[in-house]
Structures are given as structure tokens and as C-alpha cells.
Amino acid sequence: MSMTATPPAVRSYLPRGRSHKSTSGLSRARMAVRSNLLSFAPILINLQRDCAAPLPVLRHVADAMAADMRAGLAVDGGSDLKMILSYVDNLPTGNEKGLFYALDLGGTNFRVLRVQLGGKEERVVATEFDQVSIPQELMFGTSEALFDFIASGLAKFAQKEGGKFHLPHGRTREIGFTFSFPVKQTSIDSGILIKWTKGFAVSGTAGKDVVSCLNEAMQRQGTDMRVSALVNDTVGTLAGARYWDDDVMVAVILGTGTNACYVERVDSIPKLEGQKSISGRTIVNTEWGAFSNGLPLSEFDRQMDADSINPGEQIFEKTISGMYLGEIVRRVLVQMAEDADLFGEHTSAKLSTPFILGTPHISAMQQDSSKNLEAVGSILNDVVGVDSNINARKIVWEVCDTIAKRGGRLAGAGIVGILQKMEEDSKGVIYGKRTVVAMDGGLYEHYPHYRKYLQDAVNELLGSELSKNIVIEHSKDGSGIGAALLAATNSKYEH
Ligand code: ADP
Ligand code: MG
């Protein structure tokens, strides 16, 4: 079906209010595309309207994030944000010395790392790491089998020690354990698994302390190692970045999923009920993926959520993180293909396959600056099996841009929400001096447009003066070293 006259839906959106303003701001080329393609225009215009995140929306999101943080700190279950206590009260200082290990169990692989720390002068003397993929059958097996496999991998890695790595005589090797599944942390070195996620269906772990599970497996395997810190990946990132820079106060992961943590004052956490930390500070893991207040959502988001394994949950994550951006774009393209023959009259079975279009694809399409958008054309052909003319490619580019722009801007608003909450509690601590937000994750690292939209939103919200003090910077693979540093900070041996 293709339409020649301007459909009423388009007429009603074009000349009014904000959409009129934003239309006048568009380049001539874009206007030309739009008028050639009136049949897709209603879908695109509705999408852009529903996903728009102008300054007032960003402000609302930042305010709501700050308010939800407070509610979650007041009482467990008080908000969408769980505001989980990390029990990390002491951040790395740079004085840490000795040999420490990190284990990162977060997806289909586990990574092991050893690091020789040399104190303030020498810092990181040497590091080595290894990555082991987890056999599929262990992801559906018993808890003992999985942890035995990990423990024996650790043992093999430890045996290869030598060169610059030295363990003082009589000491057990200490591990910082990064475990990126939902855990109810009970101390710095214990936490109960709430449930497995991300495709793991291991029996017998839920409800148990994952540190005991690993320590017991290491005993069974005769591995001379023990866990001295259990850390969330955001917390590891914060610790790793803080080691190099005392101004780091917040860490954000934008990868498959998303999360953020920050340094909080103990007296701002009512639900701690008087428990003290010697430093007066502790890291709080916000679990901000569950945020949902006032987000600009489209029908495509609602359908994707309804079809997901966790409907109604993780709405912020579903709007801003890498697992979902490509899928939202795919859903829009399906509707454009079905209602307006975006790719001609042929439909493609591939295009109807959920999650076939990944965020790396939409990032690659957005980076195509060639005149004929050849890369867009070949990705559409290779990945979703459709042919496209230049006009269709331009529309696809716009859809990618709309979804990435919303994601980046909302992520930026979330960051400002955290900064704003901290600033409200003690004036000047954040905005009055240099403050660093450490970023990690494949989405942030590999999607330059997204990164720019995030920074734009932060600048718009803070204004040019304040935003000079806020440094948002990539901290690559900081979480592994961060976990090893937290093992050092929480070592049972004295330094
Ligand atoms: P995880 O979050 O699973 O620990 P990463 O931090 O490595 O892993 O992030 C991986 C995610 O990053 C992928 O799921 C994908 O969504 C996103 N990503 C990877 N490469 C790119 C890319 N080139 N452009 C945009 N997003 C990417
Ligand atoms: Mg990760």
C-alpha cells in the first residue's frame, strides 16, 4: 500500500506546536526525504513525538530519579530503585600492595585476572588475565558442577603464576568476585543469589550464599584461594576508576543491560538504622534499570515489554540499554514495511525475527555517512533480508537516530539525577568541584552518537558553567582491576 495524498494523520502533526518548531529546524535534505515519503511519515512522526526527550522531560526524569533514590534509601521496597548496600565502605587509595585475583562471572564467559599491586609509587606492577567459556550444559546443570568448573579454572590459572607475581609465604590467594546477577548482599564477602538471569538455569544456587558456593568448590578442588570481596560490576568499575582518580563519585554501566552506583554518605541512608561505617561513606548500587517514572515511551516499547520475559519490569533498561535498542528499531521497521511498503512489496521472514537486529547494527548504520548510505543498505540486506532504496535507508537512519537519541539523553538525565541527589544533600560536593562519572560497557564504548546524545543531555541539564565540573569518562575494563583492588582493601591480612 502506498499513499499519494497527505494522510490526515500527517496533516494533523505537521503544522502544530513543537513538531512545527522541530520541522523548521530540520535540514532541507531531511525535509525533502520527508515529503517524498509521506507514506512512512505518520509512523516516523508519531515515533519521534513519542520518543522525544526535550529539556523538560529530561528535567522530570532527573528529578524523579533523585526522588526514587531517596525513597529506596528510606526503606527496603520503598521505590522502583532497590538501592542495594554494597558493604564497600573503603575505596582503593593507591596504597594497596600485593598479589590479588579477580573473577568476573557475568555472562557466557568467566574471566580471571591477577594483579600485582605496588603501592602509591609503582601502582599496577603487572596484570594477566584469562577467559574461559562456560559449557552450555553447565548453564543448565547443578550448582556444584558449575562452581567446581569455575574453581578448577581458577586453580589452573593460579598454577601459571610466576615472573612479576609474588605471594608472600603462607598466604592464601584472595579474590574479588564480580557476580553480575541479582544478589542480596549480606556483607562485603557474602550474598544470597535471588535468581539466575541471562540464560542461566542452574539448580540449587538460588537462596544460597554464592561466596560459600565458590569457597566450598575451591576446597573440594584443593584450590588455595578464597573470596574476600563480592562485588557488583558497577561497584568494581567505581573502585577501579577511583584507584586512579579521587574525584570519581559515580559509575555507570551501559552494555547489554544498565546499572549505576555511587558513593553515598552513611547518614543519608535511613534504612541502615544506625549501622556505622568507619569512613562514613559507602557505595550504593542503585539497580536503576528498574526506574520507570515519566519515560517517553512509544507503542513499540509497550509491545516489546509485553512480549518480554519480564513484562512491566526494567523499563529504564529496556529504553536505554544495548540489549533492546536494535529490537525497538526492528519493531518500527516491521510496521513501516507492513503498513507502508518501506522495503517494497516483498516482506522478509528475517525482519519478523525478534532481536535479529542488534544494537551494534544500528550503531553501524548510524555511522554510515556515505551519500547513498551503502552500509545501511548492506546491513539491511544481510541482517534482515530486505532490499532498500535511498529513501528507505534515510528513513531507517532516522529511526535509529530517534531511538539512540532518546536512549542517550535519558541515560544522561539519569546521571544528572544521581549527581543532583548528592548535591542536594551537601551543597558544593558535586557541582562545586571536579566530579568524575566512570562509564563502562559495550554500548557506551562503541556507539559514538549515543555517547554524544548522553553528553548533550548532561550539558543541557547542568548548563555550561556547572557541566565544566562534571567529567564523564570511559573507564575501560576497570571492573576487573576494581574487584581485585576491593579484595586488597578487604584483605584479611594486614597491609
Ligand atoms: P555485558 O553488558 O554483557 O557485560 P558489554 O559491556 O561488553 O557486555 O556490552 C555488550 C553490549 O554492548 C552488547 O550487548 C551490545 O548491546 C552493545 N554493543 C556491543 N558492540 C556495540 C557496537 N558496536 N555498537 C553499539 N552497541 C554495542
Ligand atoms: Mg559487563
Please provide a written account of the structure.
This protein has a six-stranded mixed β-sheet with strand order 1-11-10-9-12-13, sandwiched between helices. The chain has a five-stranded mixed β-sheet with strand order 4-3-2-5-8. Strands 6-7 form a two-stranded antiparallel ribbon. The model is unreliable at 1-26 and 31-35 (pLDDT under 50). It has 495 residues and is of the alpha/beta class. The chain has 19 helices and 13 strands. Helix content is 46%, strand content 17%. α10 (233-244) packs across α19 (478-489), α13 packs across α14 and α14 (359-366) runs antiparallel to α15 (374-384). It has helices spanning 8-13, 17-25, 28-36, 41-51, 55-74, 119-122, 136-139, 143-159, 210-220, 233-244, 299-306, 315-320, 322-340, 359-366, 374-384, 390-425, 442-446, 448-467, 478-489; strands at 84-85, 97-105, 109-118, 124-133, 173-179, 183-187, 190-193, 225-231, 248-254, 258-265, 281-285, 435-440, 470-474. A hairpin with a 3-residue loop joins β2 and β3. Adenosine-5'-diphosphate binds next to α13, α14 and α17.
